[in-house]
Amino acid sequence: MKKVFKKQITDRLVIFFVFLFIIVLLILLVRIVNSHRYNKRLEEIKKVLNVKQGDNLKEVFSYVIKEGMTYEELKHKLKPLEKLSFVEVIEHREGTSETFICYIFDMGYMLTLGRDGITIEIDRGKVKKFHLEDSL
Fold first, then answer.
1. What is the pTM of this model?
2. Please, which contacts does 71-76 make with residues 24 or more away whose CB atoms are closer than 8 Å?
3. H/E run at residue 32
C-alpha cells in the first residue's frame, strides 16, 4: 500500500515538474520571438528613416525629431514611415495652434496586444515635444 502511494506522489511530482519546465520553455520562446520581430521591424524603421544609430524607437526618433522643427519639415522626414505596413498615423488638431501626431507601431509582439506609439506635440507650427508610449 505504501509503495503504491509513494509511486503516485512521485508520478504526480514528475508530471508537475515536466509541466513547469514546458511552461518556462514556452515563455522563453515567446520572449525570443518577440525580441526577433521587434529588432527586425526596428531595422526597417531605421532603414526607411536613414538612421544608423539607436537601439529602440525613442533613440531612433530622437535622431530624427528635433524641438523647434517646423510641421512641414517633420512631415517630410516622417513621410516614408507611412509606407510601412505595420505603422498607423493618427493626426489630431486641438483648436488652431495645437496638433498631435501619433505614429503607432505594431512591432509584432506575440501573445500580447502590445503596440508602441510616438506622440509628437506641435504648437504653432513647431515641434514642442515628443514621447514614447510602450505597449498601447
1. 0.73
2. 71/99, 71/122, 71/125, 71/126, 71/127, 74/101, 74/120, 74/122, 74/127
3. helix 2-49
Per the structure, the count of domains in the chain is 1
Q: Which of 65, 55, 53 is nearest to 118 (CA)?
A: 65
Q: Find cell 512591432 and name the residue.
A: 107
Choose among 60, 71, 56: nearest CA to 128: 71
Positions in the chain whose pLDDT score sits under 50: 136
How high is the pLDDT of residue 25? 97
**Angle subtended by helix axes 57-64 and 2-49, to nearest 10:** 10
Determine contact, residues 54/63, Cβ cutoff 8 Å. yes
Matching residue, cell 529588432? 39
Q: Which domain range does residue 50 map to?
A: 2-133
Identify whether the C-beta of residue 60 lies closer than 8 Å to the C-beta of residue 54: yes
pLDDT score for 136: 47
